[in-house]
Amino acid sequence: VLFALYPPTGAILSAAAYHNLASPDAQFGRLRLWGSIGWMLPSLPVYVWLALAGETKRVDLAFTLDLAAGLEVLAAIACLCLPHTPPAGWHHGGHHGGHHESVPYGTALRQLLSRRGFLTFLGVIFLVHSSFAVLFYYSPPALEAAGFEREWIGPLQCIGVVAEVPFLFALPRVIRRFGYHGTITMGCASLLLRQLAYASASPRWVLASSYVL
Fold first, then answer.
1. Model-level pTM?
2. pLDDT, tens digit, for every residue of 100-126?
3. Listed residue (73, 69, 107, 70) closest to 87, CA to CA
């Protein structure tokens, strides 16, 4: 249920950002950087506490679910402050200019589905998010089975978030160089390599460094 409700949030926020930013190709990367910061900052106190507790204290991690739920409530309240962006938010005369044309939802959906490549795009995005869901669910027990202590699995996940920072700064140049298709293809290839690392008998250093992918 959590993964059914949570992943669309990121997609909706990205769509709203692209619609409202003056130059989304150049600005989105740095805006998205706050998502990485928002991942790391709340996590660090928990990770440090778990690392210090170690084997001397049995830690019940159930409180992290309550903490995450509370943060999601705050995020939902913050969404009320987002710019008004109707689903049919396309304008005549370009993406940001001209007047707004109100299109019924069903008509807009049929127009989207009739566009060349849109169904392929939906399939790719579905597989990408499915890959993340599988990896988030199975990677912690796989890392424990490989010999990592449970309290260090969280910090290992932060390796991937830290690696996002320089890439997000480089994202405008990557998009200009490879286009959207090329950028998404590189992301899919990276996810595939990471899944292969977990599917094979990879050494621990490979599993840890795979978070960069």
1. 0.67
2. 566 777 887 888 888 888 888 888 888
3. 107
